[in-house]
Amino acid sequence: MAAPQRSLQRRVWALLYTGGKDFTWGHFAVVAVIIASLVLLAVQTEPGLDPDMRRRILLLDAVIPVLFGAEFLLRVWAAGADRTFSGPGGRLAYFRQWVVVFDLLAFLPELIVLLLFPEVWATARWVRLFRLFRLLKLFAMFPAFREIGQAVRDAGRRLAATAAMAGVMLFSSAVLLYVVEADAQPDAFGSVPRALWWAVATLTTVGYGDVYPITTLGRIAAGFVAILGVGLVALPAGILASAFAERLGPRR
């Protein structure tokens, strides 16, 4: 009886494993359910939705986390077919993967609320927020997305240095505008935390225009900060482009 069970484990593992290069019909089914759950999430936020249609959507919504839970348990059981994840120690290694953590977050909070607090599940908006982890589950199934993730990991130190530089620039810009604009616009630049909103909008080149300097010195400083913002946006893009080229170049 052990041999047929082992064979079944291998077949289920090949069907559901998200780290391989082959895209199986099992993956296709999971992707379809993920997309359906996100579409249902979007549709049910419409205030003018027919009450009968809303009830049907909520019923489908209740089934989806159960399906994800069953798929997760099947995958954990089938992981024993892989030598890396066989035995108690292997299962523990399997649960330490970030993909598995995202898998749990994609359905477990919603399933817990559904089972323990069904009366609030339909109106608990914060629970729906966990569905965004299903997008990460979706990314894990496609080799192309995994290549992107690996490229980001390869460039991790350089991106971290860029993020640190961005933090220094944001804070410095906020302090600079606080010094030169606080007296003229105390509501917008009367403190460093208030000036940080302008610094974020300017350095990211969004420029909402709701807060802006009005003094001559403030405008000069803002122009300098805006020019720095162009480089701040371009720098991580260049780092990622270089990482992609390094990773994909040898395959050409």
From TrEMBL:
Its main location: membrane. It is found in: Membrane. Residues 27-246 form the Ion transport domain. InterPro entries: Ion_trans_dom, VG_K_chnl. It is a multi-pass membrane protein. Keywords: Ion channel, Ion transport, Membrane, Potassium, Potassium channel, Potassium transport, Transmembrane, Transmembrane helix, Transport. The chain crosses the membrane at residues 25-45, 57-78, 98-117, 158-180, 192-214, 220-245. PANTHER family: POTASSIUM VOLTAGE-GATED CHANNEL PROTEIN SHAB (PTHR11537:SF254), VOLTAGE-GATED POTASSIUM CHANNEL (PTHR11537). This is Ion transporter. It comes from Hyphobacterium vulgare.
